[in-house]
Amino acid sequence: MQYQIKDGSDKLLGENEYLVPVKISKQGLMEELEIALAVTTDRGGFLSYKNVPAFDELFYKILDKLQVLDVALEREKAQEIGRAIAKRLREVEHDDDWFPVGNIQMICQIVDPYGTDEELQRYLEGEE
Predict the structure, then answer these.
(1) How many CB atoms lie under 10 A from the CB of residue 32?
(2) Rg (alpha carbons) of the chain, rounded to whole number
(3) Each residue of 56-100: pLDDT tens digit?
(4) Is the CA virtual torsion 71, 73, 77, 83 positive or negative?
(5) Largest pairwise CA distance in the chain
(6) Are 63 and 107 in contact (CB under 8 A)?
(7) Across-strand partners of 46?
(8) Which one-letter DSSP state was computed for residue 31?
(9) Are strands 46-47 and 93-94 parallel, antiparallel or unpaired?
(10) Whole-model pTM above 0.85?
(11) Other CB atoms closer than 10 Å to residue 51's CB: what's the count?
(12) Quick count: other Cβ atoms within 10 Å of Cβ 1?
């Protein structure tokens, strides 16, 4: 086994790296989701398959914050938010073969990796 010794006086952050406080809440993430939908849909209604990649890019930022919440040992809160996001995604009209199942699968990988959350699993299967 190899060990790497680090000098305790070394700087924690590298050049041009900063720590920024981040507040993550259900309301904040749901607002980000609505903004992502407003930008990529027909006024928050219909999501064309042509706009799904653009939506996904915005959605990944939401997933990153959801993962931070989960890693911070706030799994119950992350699951609650994940369920709300999944429910909202199921309400979006679309013509894409993979939306919203792929997005809900990504949520499940973060907050329900063992598939034990029945509500999330229902959204994944397309049940309301």
Answers:
(1) 16
(2) 18
(3) 999 999 999 999 998 887 889 999 999 999 999 999 999 999 999
(4) positive
(5) 57
(6) yes
(7) 42, 93
(8) H
(9) parallel
(10) no
(11) 18
(12) 2
Cα separations (Å) of 85 from 10, 90, 94, 122?
41, 9, 16, 13
The residue among 94, 89, 83, 88 whose CA lies nearest residue 116 is 83
103 pLDDT more than 90: yes
First-to-final CA distance of the chain: 51
**What count of residues does the chain have?**
128
- Both tokens of residue 91? 């309400």
Residue 14, classified by CB atoms within 10 Å of its CB into exposed (0-12), middle (13-18) or buried (19+), is: exposed
Taking the C-alpha atoms of residue 20 and residue 11, their distance in angstroms, rounded to an integer, is: 17
Handedness of CA 110, 58, 54, 40 (dihedral sign): positive
The CA distance from 68 to 53, in Å, is 23
Cα dihedral across residues 68, 54, 105, 77: positive or negative? positive
